[in-house]
Amino acid sequence: MKVHLLLAAAAAAAMPGAILAQDQHQHGAQAAKESSGQVQAEQDAVDHSAHAEQPEELDPHAGHTMPAAEPEPAVDPHAGHSMPTDEPEPVVDPHAGHGAAPASSLADMPAVAGPPPEAFSGPEHAADAIYGGTAMTLARRAELGPMHGGAKAFRVFMERLEARLGDGEDAYLLDGQAWYGGDIDKLWLKVEGEGAFEGGLEGAELQALWSHAIGPWFDLQTGVRYDIAPGEDRGHLVVGVQGLAPYWIELDAAAFLSDEGDLTATLEAEHDMRITQRLILQPRAELSFAAQDIPEHRIGAGVTAIEAGLRLRYEVVPQFAPYLGVEYAAELGETADRARAAGEDPNRFSFLVGIRAWF
User: Can you give the pLDDT at residue 220?
Assistant: First the structure.
């Protein structure tokens, strides 16, 4: 019994040393393991074993370095977008990607047939068999003619109705035209007369013309002219052209052969220049010619007279427009010499007040 007590006391006395030695041994081994990297592996194994035994919710941001709070950069709303260019978008072919029908399928399609022969077996105008050919021909002309350009129309122009106020005698002028017909052929009437307010009518011209379109812009006109004058009346044959030249210049050119064999001609040109929709400035010029001397009318050969003027009109309505203007008129060459010999001034400058109208 005493032996067993002695052995237990000895063991108890030796235990602190043994424990201290074991602890030192473990610390040395741990240091060796850390130096060799084994400690980390064992720690990982322990961690994984602990996870297997009891899973814990981990912070997803654990071990992350949080950035400092900074203002968010402005986002471009057009970032990643392609800006359109000024070039037009390409036209997409609606048939793109479609294969053309093979020639074999086109050959198999049935041909488009024409009208059957029976369609031409009857009369050209079936109504002729019921109402008669004569009656139906007249009806077709009356109905279809106006539909295809054969309609008749008319218009009356009062080109110039004006008073001419100047240094000499105050005078008046009347210049009018009228036509009736279709697109191709018309009957054209023209009248022009002038005189002094105190001296009465000095002369007038009346023309009756057949007008035939020779193109989209001009008509060929031929007919007769009759002059009314204090000394002697005179007739003429007339041939000329009237129409619209380039730049919207209205032209009227005619040659006259009198019953005495005298050949004369006139050329008139005018152009409307719109200042506003209602206010219109019209330059106008007229030249007169003679192929020979005409002593009874105090006319010399060559260019006999010229008139040039400006008229500013205001269209109250398109059909009615009063105007103001100025005009210079002069007799030229031998005609001017004969006017001076008769005691007349061959040059005249006039202030104009007039009316232009049509219906």
Answer: 98
